Each structure stands twice: as C-alpha cells, then as structure tokens.
Amino acid sequence: MAGICCGVVGEGDTPAPLEPTTRPSRRRSLDILPLKYIADMAVPPSDGSRKRPKLDLRDRDNVVQNCDESTGHKVVKKEAKVEIHDNISETKNVTVADASEVEDSPKFGVTSVCGRRRDMEDSVSVRPSFTQGFHYFGVFDGHGCSHVATMCKERLHEIVNEEIDSARENLEWKLTMENGFARMDDEVNRRSQSNQTFTCRCELQTPHCDAVGSTAVVAIVTPDKLVVSNCGDSRAVLCRKGVAIPLSSDHKPDRPDELLRVQSKGGRVIYWDGPRVLGVLAMSRAIGDNYLKPYVISEPEVTVTERTEEDECLILASDGLWDVVSNETACGVVRMCLKAQKPPSPPGSPGSDVAADGSDRACSDASILLTKLALARHSSDNVSVVVVDLRRDQRQSSNSN
Amino acid sequence: MLCKQNLETPTIKAMLNTYHASKLPSNQCGSSLVQTIDAPLPLVWSLIRRFEYPQGYKLFVKKCTLLDGNGGIGSVREVMVTSGLPAGVSVERLDKLDDDKHVFKFSIIGGDHRLVNYSSTITLHQEEEEYGGKTVAIESYAVDVPAGSTVDDTCSFANTIIACNLRSLAKITEEMVCKANQIKV
After folding, report:
1. Touching check for B63 and chain A: CB below 8 Å?
2. Using a CB-CB distance cutoff of 8 angstroms, which residues of chain A are in contact with residue B62?
3. Helices then strands (H, E): number in chain B?
C-alpha cells in the first residue's frame, strides 16, 4: 500500500496534469483495469497491487543482464526474463550534445527477451530525434547468430540519417530507405568477407558468416508521417481509433508475390517445416544471408502513412510476438494500458528529465504485458516489442509550447 | 545429377565407381556434388577428417560435442545447429575414415530434423597435372524422402546445405594458402 501511494504521489508531481483526478480514483483505475485485462488475456494475474514494486525491481535487474548480453557475454537462461531497455542515458547524451535539436519525442516502451530460445539474437534500436524532428524505432530479429542484428542496431540509423541528409531537398522516403537498407546489407556482407572480429561467439566457431542474417522493421515517426520499412517477418502495426492497421507485410516465402519473385530468380520455395527458401530459410527477405542471394534480398517494403488525430499507438515487434498474438489483440492490450494511465502531460521544459527520458510507464507496461502474453502462449522464439504512444494531445501540447 | 566438372580422369572415374555409385531403394533419394579447390589435398583433408570439429569448415554448426569415441571410426557426435534452420540437433556417427584413400563417411542417427537414414560419403582426389592439378572434393549422400515431401524437394534441400559447406571448405582452404603465400613474400 505504501509503495503504491508513493507511486501515485510521484505521478502527481508531473507538471500541469491535463485532467486533475482525486488520488483514490486514480489509484483505483491503475490497480483494477490492467489486472482485469491481464486475467482476460489468460496471463497469470499478479498476486495483488503490492506486487507492482517488485516487478520494477526485477526489471531493473534484467536491464543489467541485458547490458551483459550486449557486450557479448551470453548467458543461457533457464527461465524467460523480461528485460526493459532504459534509454535515459542515451537521450541525456543527446540533450547535452545539442539541446537545441531536442524536440518532444513520443513516449515509448521497449522489451526484448530471450524467451525459450537458447540464444538471444534479437536487437532493438530506439533513437529519439535521431535527425531533425524525426524519431527512429527499429526491431531486428537475427538468425544464425546475433551479430547481423547487432550491426543493424548500431549502424542502420546512422546510415539512414546520412541518406536523409543527402536527400535533404527532395526527400523521397521509399528511395531513401531502400538505399539505407542496401548499404546496411553491403556493410554486413563486406564484414563477413573480411573476417573482422565479432563480439558474438560465432567468431570462435565459424570463420565465415555467410549464413547469418536478420530481419529489420524500422519506423520513422515525423510530426506528420509514419514511415515504416520492412525486410523479413517482423512487423509494424498502427492502432488507430481501436482498429489495427498493419503498416508492414511479412516476407514469408509462400506469399504469392514473393514466391514468384524467388522462382523468377531460379530459386525454389520448399515446404520443409513450413515454407522455406531452398528449404532452408523461413523468410524471403533479410539483411545478410549472403549464401541465399539472389533469392533472399534486403530490399525493404516502405509504407508512408499520414498521422491523424485518431492515432493511438504504434507497435513494432519480432515474430516471437506476432506468431502467437494477433494484430487486434496486441492493439487491444496497448490501448488498455494507455487508457489505464492519464494522458501524458506536456514536459515542463525541453531540457527537463521528463522530456529527455522518452520511456514511459504506460508504454513500458504495454510492452511488458505483450511480451508476457507471448510467452504465456508458448512463443518459442526471442520476443522483442516496441510500443510508441502517438496520441494527439501530446503533439498539441508540443505545438502550444 | 553430377555438376559440370571434369570427372573423366581415370583416377576420379575409379573413385566415383567405388565410393559414389550406390543404388538407392525406392523410398530414398540422393545426389553427388563436386567442388574443385585450389589448395593442397592434405590441407583440405585435414579439415574434413576432423569428425569432432565440423565447424572448421561447415556452416550452420553452433557447437559440436563428442558423445562417444575420440574422433575415430564409430565415434558419435552431437551437432547443435544454428538458429533459423529447420533443425535443432543432429546426432551423427563416423562410419569410415581412410587417411590413405581420403574417404570420409558418416551417418545421421538421430536428432530433431527431417533427414532420416541419411548417410554421406566425402572423397578427395588430386587432379592430374594435365587437368590442372587441383583438389577435387566429391560428396554424395542418400536419405529417406520424408512423408509429404518429394524427391526433388528433399534433394534440393540437402544439395543446398552440402553445396554451402563445400564452397565454404574451398573458401577457407584457399584463403589459408593465400595467407601462407603472403608470409613467404
């Protein structure tokens, strides 16, 4: 009880809440709605409201573990653990480097867990204000090993930034993103040819890494557009007025146009534990996987969507989520989490911690809940989820400032 | 289904007839793949013959553990396969290892994958000088056609994996030769 009260008080400190509420009703809504929804979605409900602080503690511990993994010290987990990416340090660095460029970035939440796989091969990249007024979110699901997904996490936003800069006057999103993905693929393949050292274990095992690759689903959020570029079978879904709108289409080898494209290049799609290119790879597009070119290509499909007042959230996730959770269910879960919390309030000033820290409790809760749902439904893969709050009142507040 | 290679030299013909010409039962399929390698035969053989260390040249190997034996005939290894492939583990037995004739034969005896009753024979040959003097690796295999699959699909899958491994073998050994030559200069 005391912990919950402290939490409520903390939230009360947020400057100028748009909708003042009494403490009891706020606490009641926070406690009741998520739990009810959890029960409905067949996720084991937490024992009671007092348990919530513990969840926070576990999450903080897992952040450390995640850091260990990212440095190459892989730990085989006996249990699936939820890890939260905390981007405070990154965004604060941005603030320090160039405060004038920091604009109000959308609230977001990130989880990325090993799940029931032996190894963690997913990566997530969140770059608020990665270039003027644009925000970058990416999910990369590696296969064969983790280093291609890691390279995408570390480099793709930089490459895209360069492409945007060079196209400054005539920004054409499809061409820009296609160039960015092609350069990323070239970089991956050049590296696998040159025997450069990777921090992952495959350096010790396989001298050549032609057979490593990754999906890449990238969303760029601008003041008026959502630009989604997808290569592989991760996915981006927009939740607009309660309706799930896919912004990407999975590159499965048996998708009719992908099947034709592979065949036209002289390849085959063979049903071997599901449809696979040459019976080997369960997706028809990927970054890397040089050994399967020209059948498996790195060209992204790009969608540009105008933002509207009805936009609620954007979800990016790997197939560890989408294989067991439908678009509609995922949107429902996120909407419930967003509603359970008051609308985000405007930041006090551009340099404040609230503004600098793009992560958000409701979005984090949503990404955690989606991850737990995937694991509860026996997803057998790594699960990575990014939830971005697109609600308009945030933008209106930004405009009024 | 042999690839277009020069397989008409007397030595290669004899080896083909001896090691790669088995007749297959009706429920099985098989094929042979050939890779020419511009590297000394002893070097190439040194990578192939290490039953306990297939990742020395093979792709798709995450880890290999000997379950029985010490790498000689009769040894059994457990190969953990990299993610993304339609297999998790493959348990394999070494059936033949001939260091004089350069013959390596293994069978898959378990694991979680769809390759049942799979056996593979790899032989190395030195081309005569008049034909280029290079090393020729030939791998032929036989495997059950799984229920619901076709002969074409099964061979296509197996051929893809074997071709990748043979290309990798060529790449690695040829690079070893390049590095050795650079040291001499």
Report:
1. yes
2. 205
3. 3, 7
Which of B50, B97, B96, B91 minimizes the C-alpha distance to B67? B91
What is the β-pairing status of strands A216-221 and A213-214?
unpaired
For B115, nearest residue in chain A (alpha carbons) = A272
Nearest CA in chain A to B80: A118
The per-residue pLDDT for range A165-191, each reduced to its tens digit, is 888 667 889 999 999 999 999 999 876
- B74 phi and psi, to 5 degrees? 95, -15
Predicted confidence pLDDT, tens digits, chain A (401 residues):
223 322 322 223 233 333 333 333 332 233 333 332 333 333 333 333 322 232 322 232 233 223 223 333 233 333 333 434 333 323 222 222 233 334 468 889 998 999 977 689 999 999 898 887 899 999 999 999 998 999 999 999 999 999 998 886 678 899 999 999 999 999 998 767 665 555 564 544 444 467 899 999 999 999 988 999 999 999 999 999 899 999 999 999 999 999 999 999 999 899 898 999 999 999 999 999 989 999 999 999 999 999 998 899 999 999 999 999 999 999 999 988 987 864 554 544 443 333 334 557 799 999 999 999 999 998 988 999 999 999 865 444 444 33
Q: For residue A39, give both structure tokens.
A: 């029960």
B59-88 pLDDT per residue, tens: 899 889 999 998 999 999 999 899 998 999
Do residues A14 and A345 make contact, with C-beta atoms less than 8 angstroms apart? Answer: yes
Label residue A66 exposed, middle or buried (CB < 10 Å: 0-12, 13-18, 19+). buried
Q: Kind of pairing, strands B28-37 and B135-144?
A: antiparallel
> Which of chain A's residues have a Cβ under 8 Å away from the Cβ of B114?
272-273
Q: How far is the C-alpha of B2 from the C-alpha of B182, rounded, in Å?
A: 35
Of all residues in chain A, the one with the smallest CA distance to B167 is A291
Count of A–B CB contacts within 8 Å? 75
Work out the minimum CA distance from A204 to partner chain B, whole angstroms. 9
Fold for domain B25-184?
Alpha-D-Glucose-1,6-Bisphosphate; Chain A, domain 4 (3.30.530)
List chain B domain ranges.
25-184
Question: What domains, with CATH codes, occur in chain A?
Answer: 107-389 (3.60.40.10)
Q: Residue A27: how many CB atoms within 10 A of its CB? A: 18
CB contact under 8 A, A279 and B61: no
Q: Testing the interface with A: which of B29, B33, B55, B59 to mutate, by most A Cβ within 10 A?
A: B59
Q: Would an 8 Å CB–CB cutoff place B118 in contact with chain A?
A: no
Angle at A268 between CA B29 and CA A211, to 5 degrees: 90
Question: What residue in B sits closest to A194 (Cα-Cα)?
Answer: B175
**Which one of B80, B83, B168 has the shortest CB-CB distance to A117?**
B83
Instruction: Show residues of chain B in contact with A268, CB under 8 Å.
Output: 153, 156
Q: How far is A248 from chain B (nearest CA, A)?
A: 21
